[in-house]
């Protein structure tokens, strides 16, 4: 099945190339067209979903689309959201139906090597986590030898757990599977399971939305990494580099303390780096084929990475995902959100 | 009354020892299930999510200030459906009462949303009733039905297109997809069916191969292939996702319609063709005026069943990123504050699908009886 998938994907990549799309960069196409076709999910809480109260698309991935549109076209309203699914997201980019996809996609080597896509920098670090009831006294994964773990049916978590047991030589531990997260959570509460395991982003949301969030503890261990990144069609360095530096711009802005609110003030700053970074009197954009103030344009719409995170996933949202102590924190605070050197 | 129901239950539920056993296990089980579900629906469930997100369920992410376009489309659809119904059932006074009931139910769902919506719902039902009455009372109007449905579909596309076809969604998209597929597959299917019986072996081979290939692959694959192939093969055409989805559905279901029609063609007695031929009619005239009308008469019930099939498989378009009725429900559940309303939303989806599905089945069954009268 996987082989067939890869073969088809390769075939379409070949077709797309012969159809003569490879000559011009997507960057030029987007500028000429005046709109950005951005692929997102519309059923992923916190990442890409329709806020039914406002009627607007919201989420971390959605904000990245808007930031890219603002940086490239100078107008975030020029973004057209195209819904992609787990199945269609790669083909959508390979057949040029979307210019870039931000759809909580895990970066894996096989995806870059055989599907003919190139990933953008990681914009969220997820991973398989474990949650227990606080009253159990468990503090870390190592305390759970012999425990019953619960997870959802057909997910990779089951394999991740069993290989973790094997690696540690835990023979008494076993895995129970449930149909959906709702039942899984109920099983943890009723004591059928000692621990509940799934993506960390989902664990936080379930604990946080329950009436008594303090009853649950998400263990610090991450069993299996799942770094998310956007992606574009392969072999278009011009487009990919432009988008990479838009992403890094959002990271760097947070590090340099530039926010949506203080942007105008910072644009008057005397600091030569800040001036150049924000494109005041020449900047970094020209070399990428972007406006010199591309970072400022993006910041005006979405704010820096920290603000995007706080708005969509942070502790004040229903996702309840604290950045502290996770790879999603800035590198200066012990995380992995890191922008290369700008000047 | 009591005596009658006792007699009925003895005949139907407790006739033999096995029946008794079956009734005693199944009936309490069903009652218990109903009790549980009703208990949940009336006490635990928080139904406020349905009226709150009704717009998304009905029209997806279509812009609010352009919503009048969807109302216009819905009215055209209502008129077309009413007309189709009018071909089969005569409109009677008691039906008007039923329609009023529909308005009442719709008002309970949308009632809090202002006068404009109430008027639109009323207009919708009124149009349905009017075209029903018109077609059933004035048989001459039926001649215009086929061209009218094509004109109606084009009008719907024209009115819905301006904000962008990518924004179509919700129940409206599901119904539109079903309608377009049902209407467009009919002529294609008839041609294919005749093609498969053609005297020219090349035509026969092509049609047979097409039908057999389409019937041996899954729908979801056809839809997905059309979706990726079209932009690669015809990059200048730039068709919207929704149009490519409709093309995929049409290509697929044409093969099924062709087989239904072919079964009808085979059911027409040979003598009919021979008699027509001896009268000196041309092959074309024989097929058009003698064979086809009789064949279609036989296959109308399965064709209506086919429409139900199309409607029930419409959620598969989620694969190409379209937001149909089911996906719209999932989209609402993706809102973190609605994470615990899974059962409410899915129950609503279930009820709506069930309602539409049983309506279509009901019409198909009535149709079968209605048509059987002629051939007794």
Helix proportion of chain B: over 70%
| Extended strand count of chain B | 1
Q: Provide the CATH superfamily of the largest domain in chain B.
A: MetI-like
Helix content of chain A: 25-40%
Radius of gyration of chain A: 22 Å
Number of domains of chain A: 2
Number of helices of chain B: 16
Topology (elements, then pairings):
The complex is a heterodimer of chains A (343) and B (376).
Chain A: H1 2-18, H2 26-33, E1 36-40, E2 43-44, E3 48-51, E4 56-58, H3 60-73, E5 79-83, H4 89-94, E6 100-101, H5 109-114, E7 117-133, E8 148-152, H6 157-168, E9 174-178, H7 181-190, E10 195-199, H8 200-209, E11 216-218, E12 224-233, H9 237-255, H10 263-267, H11 272-277, H12 294-302, H13 305-312
Parallel strand pairs in A: 1-5, 1-6, 8-9, 8-10
Antiparallel strand pairs in A: 2-3, 3-4, 7-10, 7-11, 7-12
Helix pairs in contact in A: 3-9, 3-12, 9-12
Chain B: H1 2-12, H2 17-44, H3 49-52, H4 54-59, H5 67-86, H6 93-110, H7 115-137, H8 145-160, H9 170-196, H10 201-215, H11 219-233, H12 241-267, H13 270-278, H14 283-313, E1 323-324, H15 325-333, H16 342-372
Helix pairs in contact in B: 5-7, 5-8, 6-7, 9-10, 9-12, 9-14, 9-15, 10-12, 11-12, 12-14, 13-14, 14-16, 15-16
Molecular structure report:
The complex is a heterodimer of chains A (343) and B (376). Helices cover 38% and strands 19% of the residues of chain A. By secondary structure, chain A is of the alpha/beta class. Chain A has two domains: 2-104 and 236-333, Periplasmic binding protein-like II (D-Maltodextrin-Binding Protein, domain 2), CATH 3.40.190; 127-224, D-Maltodextrin-Binding Protein, domain 2. In chain A, the strands form three sheets. In chain A, strands 7, 8, 9, 10, 11 and 12 form a six-stranded mixed sheet that branches. In chain A, strands 5-1-6 form a three-stranded parallel sheet. The relative contact order of chain A is 0.14. Chain B is 77% helix and 1% strand. Chain B has 376 residues and is mostly helical. Chain B has two domains: 64-163; 167-376, MetI-like fold (Orthogonal Bundle), CATH 1.10.3720. Classes of the chains: A alpha/beta (343), B mainly alpha (376). The A-B interface holds A 12, 15-16, 19, 21, 39, 42-46, 49-52, 55, 57, 80, 82-85, 87-88, 91-92, 94-97, 180, 182, 205, 209, 317-319 and B 52-53, 56, 61, 63-64, 164, 166, 224, 227-228, 231-232, 235, 241, 318-323, 327, 330-340, 342.
């Amino acid at each position: 099945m996987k082989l067939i998938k890869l073969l088809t994907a390769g075939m379409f990549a070949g077709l797309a190339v012969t159809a003569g799309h490879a000559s011009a960069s997507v960057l030029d196409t987007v500028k000429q067209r005046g709109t950005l076709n951005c692929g997102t999910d519309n059923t992923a809480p916190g990442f890409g979903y329709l806020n039914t109260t406002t009627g607007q698309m919201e989420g971390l991935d959605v904000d990245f689309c808007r930031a890219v549109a603002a940086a490239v076209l100078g107008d975030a309203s020029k973004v057209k959201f195209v819904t992609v699914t787990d199945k269609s997201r790669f083909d959508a980019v390979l057949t040029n139906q979307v210019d870039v996809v931000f759809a909580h996609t895990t970066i894996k080597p096989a995806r870059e090597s055989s599907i003919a896509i190139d990933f953008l920098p990681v914009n969220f670090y997820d991973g398989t986590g474990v949650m227990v009831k606080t009253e159990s006294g468990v503090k870390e994964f190592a305390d759970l030898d012999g425990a019953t773990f619960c997870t959802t049916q057909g997910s990779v978590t089951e394999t991740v757990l069993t290989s973790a047991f094997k690696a540690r030589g835990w023979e008494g531990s076993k895995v129970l599977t449930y149909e959906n997260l709702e039942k899984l959570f109920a099983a943890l509460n009723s004591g059928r399971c000692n621990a509940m395991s799934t993506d960390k982003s989902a664990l936080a949301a379930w604990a946080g939305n329950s009436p008594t969030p303090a009853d649950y503890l998400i263990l610090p261990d991450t069993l299996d990494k799942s770094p998310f990144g956007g992606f574009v069609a392969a072999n278009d360095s011009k487009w990919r580099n432009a988008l990479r530096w838009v992403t890094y711009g959002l990271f760097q802005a947070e590090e340099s303390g530039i926010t949506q609110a203080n942007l105008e003030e910072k644009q008057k700053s005397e600091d030569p780096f800040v001036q150049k970074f924000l494109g005041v009197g020449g900047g970094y954009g020209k070399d990428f084929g972007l406006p010199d103030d591309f970072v400022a344009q993006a910041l005006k719409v979405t704010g820096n990475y920290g603000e995007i995170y706080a708005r969509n996933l942070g502790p004040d949202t229903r996702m309840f995902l604290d950045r502290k102590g996770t790879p999603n924190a800035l590198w200066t605070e012990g995380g992995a959100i890191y922008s290369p050197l700008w000047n | 009354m009591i005596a009658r129901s006792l007699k009925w239950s003895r005949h139907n539920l407790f006739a033999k020892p096995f029946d008794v056993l079956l009734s005693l296990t199944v009936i309490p089980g069903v009652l218990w299930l109903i009790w549980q579900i009703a208990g949940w629906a009336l006490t635990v469930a928080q139904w406020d999510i349905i009226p709150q997100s009704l717009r998304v369920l009905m029209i997806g992410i279509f812009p609010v200030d352009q919503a009048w376009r969807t109302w216009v489309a819905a009215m055209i659809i209502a008129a077309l459906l009413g007309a189709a119904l009018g071909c089969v059932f005569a409109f009677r006074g008691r039906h008007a009462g039923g329609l009023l009931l529909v308005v009442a139910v719709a008002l309970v769902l949308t009632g809090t949303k202002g006068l404009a919506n109430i008027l639109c719902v009323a207009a919708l039902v009124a149009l349905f009733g009017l075209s029903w009455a018109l077609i059933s009372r004035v048989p001459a109007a039926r001649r215009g039905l086929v061209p009218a449905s094509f004109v109606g579909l084009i009008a719907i596309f024209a009115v819905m297109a301006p904000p962008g076809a990518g924004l179509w969604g919700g129940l409206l998209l599901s119904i539109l997809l079903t309608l377009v597929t049902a209407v467009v597959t009919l002529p294609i299917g008839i041609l294919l069916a005749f093609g498969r019986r053609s005297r020219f072996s090349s035509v026969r081979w092509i049609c047979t191969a097409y039908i057999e290939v389409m019937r041996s692959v899954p729908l979801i694959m056809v839809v997905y292939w059309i979706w990726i192939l079209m932009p690669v093969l015809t990059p200048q055409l730039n068709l919207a996702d929704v149009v490519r989805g409709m093309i995929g559905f049409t290509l697929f279901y044409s093969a099924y319609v062709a087989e239904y029609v072919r079964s009808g063609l085979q059911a027409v007695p040979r003598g009919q063709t021979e008699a027509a031929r001896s009268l000196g009619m041309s092959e074309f005239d024989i097929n058009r005026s003698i064979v086809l009308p009789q064949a279609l008469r036989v296959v109308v019930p399965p064709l209506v069943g086919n429409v139900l099939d199309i409607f029930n498989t419409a959620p598969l378009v989620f694969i190409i990123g379209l937001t149909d009725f089911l996906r719209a429900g999932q989209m609402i559940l993706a809102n973190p504050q609605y994470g615990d309303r899974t059962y409410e939303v899915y129950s609503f989806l279930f009820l709506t699908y069930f309602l539409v599905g049983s309506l279509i089945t009901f019409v198909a069954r009535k149709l079968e009886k209605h048509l059987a009268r002629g051939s007794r």
